[in-house]
């Protein structure tokens, strides 16, 4: 069963580090864990398949097959819900806030605020999710 898209996409260096650690500690001829494959597939929005496969020492055809399978599974699944959960962003302390969103089509938005925010963040987020590219 495929996992839903996540909001955080790791960097190539982070995934490369995870693969290096796994390769140092793996038993001889063991298969690459699914969570490492999933991390490699998540990089498809930032890098070419060739660059990912080369950096992570993966089989290009195997990675390409997984990426195509991942796209197929999400496009054939039911449309994501357009319901929003309201988030109470009432001012408390002058704090720092970081909001990152990634649409299933690869569009990303990152908002970073310090102190009091004088704009309607919920409306801003709704416009991002409802935008059609």
What is the secondary structure topology, with strand pairs?
Elements: H1 12-25, H2 34-42, H3 49-56, H4 60-76, E1 96-102, E2 108-114, H5 121-130
Overview in brief:
This protein is mainly α.
Can you give a write-up of this model?
By secondary structure, the protein is mostly helical. The protein has 2 domains: 12-76; 81-133, no CATH class. The chain contains 5 helices and 2 strands. The chain has helices spanning 12-25, 34-42, 49-56, 60-76, 121-130, and strands at residues 96-102, 108-114. The longest helix is centred in the middle third of the chain and has 17 residues, at 60-76. It is elongated. The relative contact order is 0.13. The model is unreliable at 73-79 (pLDDT under 50).
């Amino acid at each position: 069963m495929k996992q839903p898209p996540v909001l955080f996409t790791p960097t190539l260096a982070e995934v490369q580090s995870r693969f290096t650690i796994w390769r140092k500690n793996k038993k001889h001829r063991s298969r690459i864990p699914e969570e490492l494959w999933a991390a490699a597939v998540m990089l498809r929005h930032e890098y070419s398949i060739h660059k990912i496969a080369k950096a992570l020492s993966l089989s290009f055809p195997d990675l390409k097959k997984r990426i195509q399978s991942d796209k197929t599974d999400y496009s054939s699944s039911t449309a994501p819900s357009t319901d929003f959960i309201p988030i109470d962003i009432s001012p408390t302390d002058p704090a720092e806030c970081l909001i990152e969103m990634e649409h299933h089509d690869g569009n990303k938005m990152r908002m970073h605020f310090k102190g009091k925010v004088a704009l309607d963040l919920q409306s801003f987020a709704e416009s991002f999710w409802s935008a059609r590219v």
